[in-house]
């Protein structure tokens, strides 16, 4: 279905992206019906604009032409199963946005440069946004980060021209599961590690959802150091890989500390994109993120000097390896965004001696390989959250000499995990980490797990950590 002006569309899930989809559809002239598990406040606004609230039905109403679903709705949700049973197409907000793109003066919609991966998506997309803007493009990061795509692709300036001429798009596996026709100008799969198997049902299904980003893209990019991601692009007509080592032909990599392009140049020696020491965010994983962002930009024809300016000016996002403070010779680093073992491994690899703050909701992931790999770096561990016992068991197997402190958190005392309980829990965690740390150590919040057992989200967790560190000083 491409013409939505006379269609009846059911929007399932009214978070940020669902509400944005409903607004755009109403403006387009669609008949919009709304459903969610509970009635959020935005329903009143949407109903006033012409939508109809259905409550929480388990079957799709008759006459529905299309269902637009939130990433939070699993494929086995009764409503979505019913839609499939009746042959009603289900799409996510990114797929809807792709179909609603408006063309610029040249008759072509703004290209999408798309990124997925278990970790590093947001950093890479915001790096790419910075590069594109340094090149003078009217670019924005959107999708799983920033503004909903349906708003971005339909945004117009007062003269009627599209507001954006390039879009750096972050896509999650949930969003890609419900996408069928996306064709970005270039696409990157950064890495694929064990995560979200509770939603997808298996690692293979999770991997295959990630791979959808490559199907319509003329250029496919991956980290050569990640075997799953590298295998996904290997059979593509135009594969490009990035490496932290010396790049070969068709790669971007590192030579004497400088970022080098040997994929999008005619000179076999390559072209320097960023001189040594120019990248301001720490860690080998951020070198990979920068190379992937550069590869996407180069695929879009962005010159090397703009890549250099964009990357050199990039300072990273909140709760991603951010120094929260230094107390008594100990650095306290907030990487609350490390919400799975793969992300935590990358973070831990950035520091030689760590007091690790870990725990939360593992979402079905196996923490044993992570603990075994990082055990030599650990000076101590502080655990919190619902799945802390699984961390404790892994530490007992792989790091029995490392001191471990467990802090009872809000999920244990019947409270909702927000407000005072979360703040007090975090203060206790930071105090315990201070007792374990010695000058030269890094106290690292890289929980390897989701946050919603104790906190509202990973940002709340990171903010509480930073406040507790400031209180130490």
Key phrases:
6-stranded mixed beta sheet, Protein-Tyrosine Phosphatase, Chain A, 473 residues, 17 helices, 9-stranded mixed beta sheet, globular, single chain, UDP-N-acetylmuramoyl-L-alanine:D-glutamate ligase, 3 domains, Rossmann fold, alpha/beta, 20 strands
What is the topological layout?
Layout: E1 8-12, H1 16-28, E2 31-35, H2 42-48, E3 52-53, E4 66-69, H3 78-85, E5 89-92, H4 93-100, E6 112-116, H5 121-134, E7 139-143, H6 149-154, E8 166-170, H7 173-177, E9 186-189, H8 197-200, H9 203-211, E10 220-223, H10 227-234, E11 239-242, E12 251-255, E13 258-261, E14 271-274, H11 284-299, H12 304-312, E15 322-327, E16 330-334, H13 341-348, E17 354-358, H14 368-374, E18 378-383, H15 388-398, E19 404-406, H16 420-436, E20 442-445, H17 458-472
Parallel strand pairs: 1-2, 1-4, 2-3, 4-5, 6-8, 6-9, 7-8, 9-10, 10-11, 11-12, 16-20, 17-18, 17-20, 18-19
Antiparallel strand pairs: 12-13, 13-14, 15-16
Helix pairs in contact: 5-11, 5-12, 16-17
């Amino acid at each position: 279905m491409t013409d939505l002006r006379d269609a009846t569309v059911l929007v399932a899930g009214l978070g940020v992206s669902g509400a944005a989809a409903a607004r755009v559809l109403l403006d387009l002239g669609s008949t919009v019906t709304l459903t969610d598990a509970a009635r959020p406040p935005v329903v009143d606004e949407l109903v006033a604009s012409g939508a109809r609230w259905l409550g929480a039905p388990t079957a799709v109403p008759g006459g529905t032409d299309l269902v637009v679903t939130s990433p939070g709705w699993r494929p086995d949700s009764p409503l979505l199963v019913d839609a499939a049973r009746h042959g009603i197409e289900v799409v996510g907000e990114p797929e809807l946005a792709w179909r609603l793109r408006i063309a610029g003066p040249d008759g072509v919609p703004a290209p999408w440069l798309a990124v997925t991966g278990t970790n590093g998506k947001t950093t890479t997309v915001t790096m790419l946004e910075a590069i594109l803007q340094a090149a003078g493009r009217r670019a924005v990061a959107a999708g799983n980060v920033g503004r909903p795509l349906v708003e971005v692709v339909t945004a117009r300036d007062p003269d009627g021209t599209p507001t954006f001429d390039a879009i750096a798009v972050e896509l999650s596996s949930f969003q890609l599961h419900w996408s069928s026709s996306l064709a970005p100008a270039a696409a990157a799969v950064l890495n694929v590690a064990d995560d979200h198997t509770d939603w997808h049902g298996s690692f293979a299904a999770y991997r295959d959802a990630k791979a959808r980003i490559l199907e319509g893209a003329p250029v496919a990019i991956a980290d050569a150091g990640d075997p799953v991601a590298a295998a996904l692009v290997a059979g593509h007509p135009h594969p490009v890989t990035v490496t932290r080592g010396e790049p070969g032909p068709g790669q971007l990599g590192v030579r004497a500390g400088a970022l080098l392009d040997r994929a999008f140049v005619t000179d076999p020696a390559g072209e320097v994109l960023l001189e040594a020491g120019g990248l301001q965010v720490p860690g080998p994983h951020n070198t990979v993120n920068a190379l992937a962002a550069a590869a996407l930009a180069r695929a879009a024809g962005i010159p090397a000097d703009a890549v250099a300016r964009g990357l050199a000016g990039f300072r990273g996002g909140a709760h991603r390896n951010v120094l929260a403070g230094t107390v008594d010779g100990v650095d306290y680093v907030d990487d609350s965004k490390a919400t799975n073992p793969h992300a935590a491994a990358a973070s831990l690899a950035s520091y030689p001696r760590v007091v690790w703050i870990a725990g939360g909701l593992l979402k079905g992931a196996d923490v044993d390989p992570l603990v075994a790999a990082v055990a030599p770096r650990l000076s101590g561990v502080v655990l919190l959250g619902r799945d802390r016992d699984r961390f404790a068991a892994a530490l007992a197997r792989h790091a029995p000499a490392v001191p471990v402190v467990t802090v009872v958190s809000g999920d244990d005392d019947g409270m909702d995990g927000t407000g005072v309980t979360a703040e007090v829990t975090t203060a206790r965690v930071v105090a315990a980490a201070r007792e374990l740390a010695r000058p030269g150590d890094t106290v690292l919040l890289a929980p390897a797990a989701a946050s919603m057992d104790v906190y509202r989200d990973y940002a709340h967790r990171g903010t509480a950590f930073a406040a507790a560190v400031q209180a130490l000083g």
